[in-house]
Amino acid sequence: MSRDDAGPVDVDQPLAVGVPPAPHDASGERVPTRDLSGLAPPPRPARRWTPKRVVATPAALEHPHGRRIAERVAALGIEVERLRGNRVTGLRGETARETYARAKSTLAIVVSPPSRRRLQPIAPSADWRVDLAEGCPAHCQYCYLAGSLTGPPVTRVYADLDDILDGLAAVLVRP
Ligand code: SF4
User: Fold this and answer.
1) Which domains can be identified in the chain, with CATH numbers?
2) What per-residue confidence (pLDDT) applies to 135?
3) Cβ-based neighbour number of residue 91 at 10 Å
């Protein structure tokens, strides 16, 4: 008898009649388990990322949040370079590998582009998303960011946090 002939499933009845329930397996089938904890590498404390270079655009430093970020960075003993213009420059190296390494170790304090201030749909995991930063300093080989962000993969943090939150408030109070 095929599943189609069997009629609707009665969810109150066990699927595997006469088989002792095994909490680790949904079908009730007995599954051997092994303790593999001895093979696991010992836990290591998490490392906090510290950028080698921090740059800030003039527009970003006009925002209180941008200045707060710069002050926190300076308190860690890292110099904050003030860029001459509002484009992030100086990331290109001699080779693509050098450009990648430079960008991944740089934090840029910038003002978010207008397109980023709009709520962006992100189905099916959530209704929408809003970005407070862009990029990531990690180097996971499977990461889709490397192919989806344009230009060198620098981590950007948005200085205009107050404007971003104000924009959200306007959307969230809408009936
Ligand atoms: S997958 Fe990409 S975004 Fe996630 S931690 Fe790795 S490099 Fe960063």
Assistant:
1) 53-172 (3.40.50.12110)
2) 92
3) 19
